[in-house]
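Repro:
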Amino acid sequence: METTLLNDSLRGLNLDKDEYIALMTKLIGDSRQVQNNARQGLVPKESVMVAHVMEILSPYKKENGGPLIIEEYVYVEDRPNLKISYPGTDPELCTGFIGSHLDVVPANPETWERDPFTLSFEDDNKLYGRGTTDCLGHVGMITLMFKALAERKPSLKRSVVALFIAAEEAGETGVGVDMVVKDGKVDELKNGTCFWIDSADSQPCMGTAGALEWHLKATGRLFHSGLPHRAINSFELASEALSIVQRRFYEDFPAHPKETPYNFSTPSTMKPTQVECAKGAFNQIPPWTTISGDIRLIPFYDVGHVVEVVNGYVREINDNIETVPTRGTCSKYVLEGGDVDVKRGTVEIEW
């Protein structure tokens, strides 16, 4: 019965195509300012996106006589999270739209056929620009949904709540949704259906994998590359250790039978995406190397269990460092001699 009433209330709630394109033109036009990659020196100012959203929704705020409750949660200057609520008649019931984020992956204009920071709308009826699918297009859609709700003012039993989040792309903490949840600002979402509106494609997403970022650091012994038998090559140790960890991960967390009904494109995966080592000359064997990457975990495995198991792999590597494969007769991870300051290579993982 409630579903029928909801459908009746929302019938005729249409979004204007031209208004959407106008809003997206502004969002994509400023997407250069919300590129997120600290290693490239790119720190987003999500406040720029919030300003465009508020230009649309401010007239409908409760303070201005409208039905919308709009709140900003700022934990780092210029990096707000934005919560929008259309109150229902039952304060205990809620439908949530979360996950749409205000930052984007960096774009190199030289590798694009079009300017990524200018919205292009062409004959194929598609929009082009950085953030059209991940995730400013979702921000624009939800913004206009709330505008339509505020204008039509349907009587809903459930409140409708959206949260636009900061700091999604770089895995930062202390800025975005982690702080909003910690402060209890979206506790009402526990009382109803919640949709995560963030997909790097243009199709509806009914199941997605969670992301666990990791850093695998190998520590060895610095020495001249002309005398490799006096060194512990952290680069080689990191590579071999990761090979062991990946092999065991895929053995312990294979494709799950429940993936098929939900049309998952891939099973759980663990792979490297970046590498960094101690800076030095080409003729120096680096004393430390860090390989970073992620685990994309389907929701049929427990995150805490996976972390515990992978930590166990690393402990076993350290306990049995002599058995880790080496490369050539001079490659070794254990050294002897009274003049050797680092006698044993080690591996550690940070989440």
